[in-house]
Amino acid sequence: MDCGFNGSKVMETPNIDALSKKGMVFNNAYAGAGNCAPSRASLISGRYSPTHGVYAVGSTTRGPVDLMKLVPVRNTISLNPSFKTIAEGLKGNGYATAIFGKWHLADSGDTRPEAQGFDLYFEGRKKQSDKKSNTENDPKGVFSLTNEAIKFMQANKEKPFFTYLAHHAIHSKLEARPQSIEKFRKRGLNEKMAIYAACTYDLDASVGVILDYLRKSGLDKNTLVIFTSDNGATQLSSQEPLRGNKGCYYEGGIREPFVAYWPDRIKPGTVNSTPIINLDFYPTFMALAGDKKFKGDGEDLMPLLLGQRSTTIRKSIYWYFPGYLDNPVIRGRDKVFRSRPVAVIRKGDFKLHLYLEEWILDGGKDRINDNNSVELYNIRTDEGEHNNLTSSNVAKRNELLNDLLNWMEKTKAPLPTKITATNKPVQGNVSGEN
Predict the structure, then answer these.
(1) Which of 89, 157, 176, 178 is the most buried (most CB within 10 A)?
(2) Would the pTM count as exceeding 0.90?
(3) d(Cα 397, Cα 317) in Å, to the nearest integer?
(4) Buried (b) or exposed (e) across 62-91, using 16+ Cβ within 10 A?
(5) Among the listed residues 323, 325, 345, the one whose alpha carbon sits nearest the alpha carbon of residue 336
(6) What is the CATH number of the domain that holds 41?
(7) Closest by alpha carbon to 224, among 161, 168, 278?
(8) Nearest CA among 48, 108, 104, 52 for reference residue 76
(9) Does residue 328 lie within any of the structural domains?
(10) Band of pLDDT at residue 430, cut at 50, 70 and 90
(11) For residue range 186-205, what is the model confidence (pLDDT) as tens digits?
(12) What gap in Å lies between CA 25 and CA 268, rounded to an integer?
C-alpha cells in the first residue's frame, strides 16, 4: 500500500503519516507472500507457506498452461483447522477476539473465522469478489467496518481484546466516497488513479477514527496498534524504487508499510531496519498476553518494539511459491507471469531468488553458473534489485543458497514436478489482480 510516510507523492495519508511519527516504523517489513490469501494464512497461523499449504488465491496454475514448464504444487484455499490460529491462542489467554472485513481463507464449516478462534466475524460485504457498490457514501464499507470494530472494543473495554480490522479497501474493485474522488480529480489525476488515491484516503480516515476512539476512551495507553498490509501495490501504482508489484517476490511485491504504536511504551519517531515478516505477529501477541509457549516460524518482536534489543535473533526469513501467477509486473523477470515457481531468502543485507524451473530442468547446482536459476541482490545498497551479484559474489550466493535449500528440506517444501504425457498443468480458475 502507498503511504505518504513511505514517500508517495500521489497518496494522501495524514493519519497514517502522523501514526508513523508517534510510533516505530519498520522499513524492511514483509508480507508472508506476494498476494493476499497466502500472506493472511501466514499471519493467522504464524507459519511459512510450505507448512500451511496456501500459496495463491484459488489456483497455482494461473496463466497460459502451454507456457508453464513444470506442474505446480496444488494449492490449498483454506487454513487447516488443525492449526491453532492467532485468535485461538489469544482466546485461550482470556482475550475477546474479532475480525472485521476480509478473511480470504474460505468461509464455510470449520474453516470459518468463528470456527478458528474468533468470537465475532463481520465481513461487511457479501464477498471480496462482489463487484457491486454498496452505499454511495461508503462503497467499500470502510466506515461500517470501522464503526463495528469500535463497537466491539467498547463492549470489551474491561477485558483484553484482539481486533483484526482487515479492510476490503484498497483491493479491487476500487471504490471511494464521491467527495474523496473529486478531491483527487481536482489534483489532475486520471480517473483510475483518482479513485485509487481516494480509496486509500478513505482507508486512512478509518485509521484516524480508530486512533481517536482509543485516545478518547483511554484505551490507547494499554493497546498495541499495528498498521500494515498483506502484499505490494497493484500495477496502478509504481513501487519505485522497489521492483515489481503485488504477486511477485521482488521487493515491490512483498515489502509492506509497518507502524507499531503504543503510547509510553514504544518510543515515538523511531525507525528499525531489521527485516521482519507478518509471521512475527503471532509470537509477538502471545508474548504480550504472557504466553511464550507458541513455537511457530516467527519471532517475538516485543524486545525490538520496547527498545530492549535492536535486531531479531533469527538470521533469515523465507518465501516459497511453487506455482504460476498470471499478469506480468513492472520490471519483472517474465513477460507473461507475475511469478513463476520460486523460493526466496533474505539474510542480512542480501536476498536470493531461486527459480525452480531452471533449477529442476537445467542442472540445478551443477549448472548454477550458467542456468540462470539464481539472482542475488544487496538490498541495503540496491533495494531496486537492479544488480544481480550471482557471478560477482559467489561466496555469498552459495551461503544463501545452501541456507535456502536446507530450509526447504526442513519444511518439506513440495517441489513442482516435470511435465509428462500424463502429468500436465491444468488451467486454474482465477485471474486478475488477486
Answers:
(1) 176
(2) yes
(3) 16
(4) bbebeebbbbbbebbbbbeeebbbbbbbbb
(5) 325
(6) 3.40.720.10
(7) 161
(8) 52
(9) no
(10) low
(11) 898 888 888 888 889 989 99
(12) 9
